[in-house]
Each structure stands twice: as structure tokens, then as C-alpha cells.
Amino acid sequence: MTAPLLDLAIVIPTFNEAGNVPLLIAKLDAALQGHEWEAIFVDDNSPDGTAGVARQIARIDRRVRVVQRIGRRGLSSACIEGMCATAAPIVAVIDGDMQHDETILPAMLDRLLQDESLDLVIGSRFVEGGGTGDWDHDRVAKSAFATKLSRQILKADLNDPMSGFFMIRTQLVRDAVPHLSAIGFKILLDIMTSNPRPLKFEEVPYTFRLRTEGESKLDHVVAMEYLIAIYDRMFGRVVPVRFAMFAAIGALGAGVHFLVLGPLFKELEFGFLVSTIIATIVAMTFNFFLNNALTYRDGRLKGAKQLFEGWVSFCVVCSVGAIANVGVAAFLYDAQSDTWAFSALAGIMVGAVWNYALSSRFTWGRY
Q1: What residue spans define the domains of the chain?
Q2: Nearest-CA neighbor of 272 among 324, 322, 329, 315?
Q3: Which of 41, 130, 132, 339 has a Cα-to-Cα distance from 159 of 20 to 30 A?
Q4: CATH dotted code for 8-235
Q5: Is the dihedral of CA 260, 265, 270, 276 positive or negative?
Q6: How far is CA 290 from CA 232, 247, 248, 251, in A?
């Protein structure tokens, strides 16, 4: 007997959602009666054992699959891996926190099956019949700002471009993958802005639910990742986003450099060369930890041992840049002793490109 054809895959990116896994599977089972579907949990090696909980269910329910990612994090990249892992012609993305309304999945699927010209269907909080539930005023205001900004990038009449709940033809995703940035947590924005042609879409209303299990992943770093994704879509082809972040942190590091150098040289009279060496080490340490937290967040180093080894590696591989920094600064200062600030800045600029190229390869790249 021939097995029925697979209609739909539901990709569920997770991190610390062990309590929600069985609840979500039960709700998908109830909502998708009469359809052939599979659920793909893409888990970023959750400490709470989310992947293990999903595997226990998968042993008795072959519609459930698990992709456990080691050393990689990020909602967008998790969604991409999950969408590329299915043979289903249509794929949906839904959060693992139970805040999206799985009962509208059949209606979303029906629209794609009925209209072959339609590319994707989006669950929307901001069309008639939809809502944000019990969001407070601050969260509503932030979402409205992000939505307005996203619509400027999309140049499409989409009411909820920040939605993380949508259904799309799988082949469109496969074709778009080489052009996706995989940055941040808004994969819909990435897909729609990467496609060479405007995608035809419809929005289906739903009301955003309150989380009942686990903890929210929304934080200031996630908000920053959204701004990074916007930057990538606007300017990423000119200046790659990772280099832009590294350079921005380098600029902050330059501020730290001067904050340390000025008092050492002017007030404590350590001498310009010694002051520059100390300031360079302090700035380098500052840059390492901030780059680890932000620029290389998707592969950041963790734990005392890894952080210490990473810091040592960062200092070693950037030594060429540091030597150039100190050498150029000292040379210029000796030539024109009244221009210590300019001398220090010139040294920093010379070392910047070396620092980025070498640290990307030998500090974070080796992991």
C-alpha cells in the first residue's frame, strides 16, 4: 500500500521549550486532522533538554523529527535549516512557545492549495480579526515602530512584517537560501527582501497568546539583532554586517583606548610608549568581550576556559595589528611630539583590518 503524500511541514525553532513540546504536538494533531504533516523541531542544544523531549515523542510518532544544532544559535538560521530539511512542498514556521494560533494552519494551507499563484500566507496580528492579546503599551509601541521600519524596507503593503508565523512554498525558500542573511529573529523579513521578485502573499488574522511555559527570549540583544538585520538589507552588500559591527565595536574600543591613555600619559606620566601599550591591552580586552557577545553571538565562546583561551587567542592573533598600532603611534609621536592623540588614532586605524581578519579566522572561526 502506497503511503499518503506529505502535505505540510511545520518548522519549530526552539531553545529551552521542553515544557511546550508535548503540548504543541497535541495541538497540531488536533488542528491538522485530515492532513499529512510533519513537525521539525530545530533545537539550539537547549540546556533544559528540549531535543530529548522531542525525541521521546518521535519514537512513537513518526511525524515528529528533531534537528539538534551544536555550536550554532539563532532563530532565523534555525528556521532555514528546518525548512531545507523537509520534502514537503509547503512549510510553515511557528514558534515553540505556544503563542501562535495553530488552529489557523488549515486555513493557511487551503489558501496555498487553492491558489497556485500565491507564494505565502502570513499569520497577522494587525489585520481585522487579529490582535496582540494582553501586550502592554510599551510592547505595542515598540512593535509599531519595528513594523513601520520593516515596511520601508519591504516596500510592500504588509500589515505584520514582524510576524514569525507564516506558511510558504518550500521551493521558494530553497531558491532564496543563498541570498538569505540568516541574521536575527525575523526570518519572514529576510525571505521577502531576498527574493528577486515581489512575493504574492495573503494575511490571515490571529490573536497572539500569552506564554504559559518557559521564558521569553525577547531581550535587548534580540532587538539589536533586528536592527542589524535591517542594516544588512539596506547596506550589507556594500559593507558586510559583521565587519560593520566589528568596526563599530572597534570605535568604542578607541574611546576606551583614549580614556586609559589620557590619564596615564598626561596625569600619571607613564611615558607615551608605556601608556599606549597599556591602553592597547585594555582596549583589546574590551573589544574581545563585546565582539564575543555581539558580533559573534551566533558562535560566541562560553565558560571560563573557553573565554580565557579565546581571549589569549584574540590577543595573539591580533599581535601583528597591536605591534603596528604601537609602532605607528610611537613613530608619529617621536616625529611630532605635540600630536599624541593623532599618533594614537593612526596606530589604531592601521591595526583594525588585521584585527578583524585574523580574529574572525583564528579566535571564533576555530570553533
Answers
A1: 8-235, 241-364
A2: 329
A3: 41
A4: 3.90.550.10
A5: positive
A6: 20, 12, 11, 12
